[in-house]
Amino acid sequence: MTDFAALLAPDRGQPARTIHVVTPAEWTNWLSAQPPRVRATVAAHKLTGKAGNKAILPGEGTEDWSALLVCDEAETSPWRIASQGEILPEGTYRLTHGEPGAAMLGWVLAQHRFTRYRKDEAAGPRVLLTGEPARIDEVVRVAGAVATVRDLVDTAAADLGPEELEGEVRRLAAAHGATVTVTRGGELESGYPMIHAVGQAAARGREPRLIELEWGSPAHPRVALVGKGVVFDSGGLDIKPSAGMRLMKKDMGGAAHALALAGLVMGARLPVRLHLLIPAVENTISGSAFRPGDVLRSRKGLTVENTNTDAEGRLILGDALTRAGEDTPQLILDFATLTGAARVALGPDLPPLFSDDEALAADLLAAGVAEHDPLWRLPLWSGYDEQLKSDIADLINAPEGGMAGAITAALFLRRFVPAGTAWGHLDVFAWRPAAKPARPKGGEAYALRAAWRVLKGRYGG
């Protein structure tokens, strides 16, 4: 993991190169105030003051230079100077005006690389100075959480099965003095039958399991974080086409989000009783795979007619949500790479939020705006509950036709959440299809920073 703490430092007047951050509206006045050598450099680069213009500007001496960035991002955006964190040479930098503030996050994340499978050829560290040193620790923690999600999602499924995901939880627990309980393999059959059914076809060593972490004083409000941990999704007997299977190493992205958020909670020592639940399975094909038409029993006692083995995430979450609700939590948040329908509706960058709790929904949406980590609320439209009806069981897992697929998946999950419990379901993509500054193509954390802001606001004191 990148040493993010080494990329930020208190500004005590030490030598540093400067970064001019200029908005398009400020461009003309800024340029007119510059010495001839700077104006000549700007002209040679044919810069016009358009957002994204950047250059290295000469100083009075040979080794005296500064950086220019024309930027139309708000000062509250974490990505405001992220491009500079990626491209500038090794060294120490400060802004010519104002504090980097939220932009410290983009600066450090721009220097993170996933290097498990290839050599890191990045430049040396670029250190950003700040007059707000009290913010550094929080930025470092959040950057670490985002990087955790990215790295876990980017890891190949051959190297991240249910056992390895359990190992990640155990490492996190050891770092914070938490306890871990794991129910695996045949032990699941009586207590967590849907988790067992989905994962029963996996090879030896990749058996399904429910991983639970608990931390904090039992006297504090109980908060449950649930993450879908399908380490690879072939679709099961309703097998996916090859194109649909290509990125299915990311189907444990919900688990990565929940694990990273749990790390933030424990790292900040929020006064909560934390319960992290990750149902970890591989949805694969063998003679023991669960079948279309099978009727599955659930931990809650509801029976589910399996109409599609590729709608497995909601099955394992159903058992995990039931377990989470048994201890009467004040709040449940679940993260899941659950439906393609959510991507069709909102694209990769905008996770849908489902919640019956108006206060929780309002808090999450507001936090998304404040953190530049947006969400969009979709309705838990009870009128579509009838699409979950079964002729032979209490409900089905996947209605025919695909209409309102993200909504019906959320409605399925709602059946397993205790009535009256504040619950939010986040259908995240966990993948960035195209790179942006500090946000490389690959695994990505969505709604993580928004959820963390809500938890801090509610329980941070």
| CATH topology (fold) name of the largest domain | Aminopeptidase
Question: What fraction strand?
Answer: 15-25%
Superfamily at the CATH H level of the largest domain? Zn peptidases
| Overall body shape | elongated
The total count of strands amounts to 20
Instruction: Please tell me the total number of domains.
Output: 2
Explained architecture:
With 461 residues, the protein is of the alpha/beta class. The chain folds into 2 domains: 4-131, Leucine Aminopeptidase, subunit E, domain 1, CATH 3.40.220; 141-459, Aminopeptidase (3-Layer(aba) Sandwich). It has helices at residues 27-32, 36-44, 82-87, 103-109, 136-154, 162-176, 188-191, 193-199, 242-245, 253-267, 313-325, 340-346, 358-370, 405-414, 448-459, and strands spanning 8-10, 17-22, 54-58, 65-70, 91-95, 126-130, 179-184, 209-215, 222-227, 229-233, 273-283, 295-297, 303-305, 331-336, 352-354, 376-377, 395-396, 422-427, 431-432, 442-443. The strands form 4 sheets. Strands 7, 8, 9, 10, 11, 14, 15, 16 and 18 form a 9-stranded mixed β-sheet that branches. β3 and β4 form a beta hairpin. The radius of gyration is 24 Å and the shape is elongated. The relative contact order is 0.12.
